[in-house]
Amino acid sequence: MQTVIIEAPAKINLTLDVKGKRSDGYHELETVMHQVNLFDRVTLEPRSSGIEMATNSSSIPLGQENLAYKAALMVLQEYQPGAGVKIFIEKNIPVGAGLAGGSTDAAAVLAGINHLYDCRFSRQQLLKMAAAIGSDVAFCMSGQYYQPRPGELVSRGTTAIARGRGELLESLPTRIIPYILIVKPDFELSTVQVYSELDLKAVEQFPDTRSFLQVWNKGDIINISVYMANVLESVSIRKKPEIGIIKSRLMEMGALNALMSGSGPSVFAIFPDNETASKAYQAFKKEYREVYLLSSYKRGDKNGS
Ligand code: C5P
Predict the structure, then answer these.
(1) 165 CB less than 6 Å from ligand 1?
(2) For residue 280, is it left (φ>0), alpha (ψ between -120 and 50) or beta?
(3) pLDDT tens string for the chain (305 positions)?
(4) Whose CA is nearest to atom 10 of ligand 1?
(5) Is the CB of residue 135 below 6 angstroms from any atom belonging to ligand 1?
(6) Which residue in 43, 41, 302, 7 sits closest to 143, CA to CA?
(7) Is the minimum distance from the CB of 192 to ligand 1 under 6 angstroms?
(8) Torsion region of 281: left, alpha or beta (phi above 0 gives left; psi -120 to 50 gives alpha)
(9) Where in the sequence of the chain do the CATH 3.30.70.890 domains occur?
């Protein structure tokens, strides 16, 4: 049995709508999520017992509070109680950012352990475990995986509309957004707190998800920006006006649109060309540590091998 290295990409929410509060305390969502080419690298090594975790980051926990640890515990328990694994997380995605950094590591651990130990859990079984770990984990694991080289496992990258708590997924056609700029301000926001302060009556702009899907399906990447909106901005911008300022500045710099991702605080912008995107990147890089010029995450060739 050998080491497995898995790429775990971040996501942005191109739309995020909340339909109401559920009796289980969660919110009923309708959100389009899209993976971008900013990714952590998760390395798994077989171990006869126990879960050992290490990372290059000073900002993530290494025990039960880490979703990747929870994922390992769950999948090993289902496979062979007592079996172990060694996990190393090379952290590149900002933490507490609204980019699903923790969820994508958990998804990588589920898919990776299934591969490492040849557990043969079905996709449905893995998606069920993912949903039990966190609302975004199923999406992060829903891309199709392939093996470019022995010892590597790579997702092709995915875009999906998620409903329910976030676990009811419908995948959307692949589209490449070439110029995406992400700015993560130097503070974190608590997802629990943002959702708990959401007042749908105070929301000024809801996404037009139906129109968004029409233009997405047509492959009209420029016009998707018209229909992007995130209802959680109403809470996060009130708590942290800097998010609104970043959005306005990105628009002034020529973005087609700029939106907060998830519950924030990261803001992403879609740019029409490399030149405008690069200028905005240079300008924000002078002020913020965590600024990324990206495109969509897409792996694998056209023939699907
Ligand atoms: O599922 P997860 O642990 O990632 O969710 C974090 C928190 O976000 C939940 O405890 C809840 O407060 C909020 N949430 C929600 N409705 C959702 C997803 C998350 O209220 N659909």
Answers:
(1) yes
(2) alpha
(3) 589 999 999 999 999 999 999 999 999 999 999 999 999 999 999 999 999 999 999 999 999 999 999 999 999 999 998 899 999 999 999 999 999 999 999 999 999 999 999 999 999 999 999 999 999 999 999 999 999 999 999 999 999 999 999 999 999 999 999 999 999 999 999 999 999 999 999 999 999 999 999 999 999 989 999 999 999 999 999 999 999 999 999 999 999 999 999 999 999 999 999 999 999 999 999 999 999 999 999 998 654 44
(4) 192
(5) yes
(6) 7
(7) yes
(8) alpha
(9) 180-294
Q: How far is the CA of 230 from the centre of ligand 1 (A)?
A: 15
Are 154 and 115 in contact, with CB atoms under 8 Å apart?
no
Task: Give the number of the atom of ligand 1 that is nearest the alpha carbon of residue 27.
Answer: 16
Which residue has its alpha carbon closest to ligand 1 atom 12? Answer: 192
pTM score, whole prediction: 0.96
The single residue listed with the structure tokens 């079984």 is 125
Atom of ligand 1 nearest to the CA of 28: 21
Say if ligand 1 is within 6 A of residue 134 CB: yes
Alpha carbon of 173 to ligand 1 centroid (Å): 26
Q: 28 is written with which tokens?
A: 């009923």
Q: Does domain 4-171 sit in CATH 3.30.230.10?
A: yes
- Say if residues 54 and 90 touch (Cβ distance below 8 Å): no
Domain with CATH 3.30.230.10 in the chain: 4-171
Q: Nearest C-alpha to atom 13 of ligand 1 is from which residue?
A: 192
CATH fold, domain 180-294, is Alpha-Beta Plaits (3.30.70)
